[in-house]
Amino acid sequence: MNRSVLIIFFLFSVVSIGMSQPIKRYGAKIGVSSATWVWKTDGSTVCGIDNRLGLDLGASVEWFNTPTFSVLTELHFVQKGMKHNIPITTIQYPEGTGEFIKHNIRLDYLSFAVLPKLRLETEIFEFYVIAGVRLDMSLSNSVAVEGREPLRTYSAQGYQSLIDKFKSPQLGGTVGFGAQFDSLLLLPAGIEFRYSPNFQSAYDQYVWNIKNTSFEFLLTITN
Q1: How far, in Å, CA of 83 to CA of 29, rounded?
Q2: How far apart are CA 46 and CA 60, in angstroms?
Q3: pTM over 0.85
Q4: In the chain, what are the helix, strand and coil shares in percent, each to the nearest 5?
Q5: By the 8 A CB rule, do 77 and 108 touch?
Q6: What is the CA radius of gyration of the chain?
């Protein structure tokens, strides 16, 4: 049994245990992800990799209605990827001509997470921290490239070939904190900030190693 199968079995085991417990609340989350790659070649980090903004849309169920502890199970559609601008150089201008080949890499994932949650509740709001594991299943990908031909076409084909080889699923973690206000809207609503690095490489061949990582800012609405 490979590692991905063991991970999936573990996550669904946690959910099965949780489903025998009372539901504290359920809700929806919507916001943005700021994603990039940790890209290393022969041990050195590739420079010029920038963050890409994308959509994060999810649903959550909160189990274990105890005073300070609960567990979130969540399913998200989240867009990740990165941006990368490569300067065009020539023999005459080895430092660059001022032109760039601009890459916008989009990776769409279905993300399942199990997140233990510690809460501090008051009469006005609830403050909480979360930390847990996450499994990202690839849905689709796309490469958008701007720049001079034929460099633009060659680069687009190269990046597409690369991301088509990305592993799925990918194991990661999520840590974050948030606050929820019971009287902010008609339903309890709040904000949440997360950091979601991957433990497992998306690509690891030859001298290249690439991992997805992202920050998320979410608005939350619960019952």
Answers
A1: 25
A2: 36
A3: yes
A4: 15, 60, 25
A5: yes
A6: 20
Asked whether the CA dihedral 56, 198, 202, 200 is positive or negative, the reply is negative
220: Cα within 13 Å, side-chain hemisphere: 29
Mean pLDDT, to the nearest integer, of 27-45?
Answer: 93
Phi, psi of 186 (to 5 degrees): -65, -30
Q: What does the pLDDT look like over 147-194, one tens digit per residue?
A: 989 989 999 999 999 999 999 999 999 999 999 987 666 778 899 999
Residue 3 confidence (pLDDT): 53
The answer to whether residues 190 and 179 touch, using CB atoms and an 8 Å cutoff, is: yes
pLDDT tens per residue, range 41-99:
988 888 889 999 999 999 999 988 788 999 999 999 999 999 998 888 778 877 778 88
- List all residues 6 or more positions away from 149 whose beta carbon is below 8 Å from its beta carbon: none
Q: Are 220 and 190 in contact (CB under 8 A)?
A: yes
| Tokens representing residue 62 in the block | 């909160």
- Residue 49: which residues within 8 A CB-CB, separation 6 or more? 36, 37, 39, 82, 83, 84
Which residue is it, tokens 């669904």?
12
The encoded tokens of residue 195 equal 């950091």
Length of the chain: 223
Beta bridge partners of 214: 35, 196
Instruction: Work out whether strand 189-197 and strand 170-181 pair parallel, antiparallel, or are unpaired.
Output: antiparallel
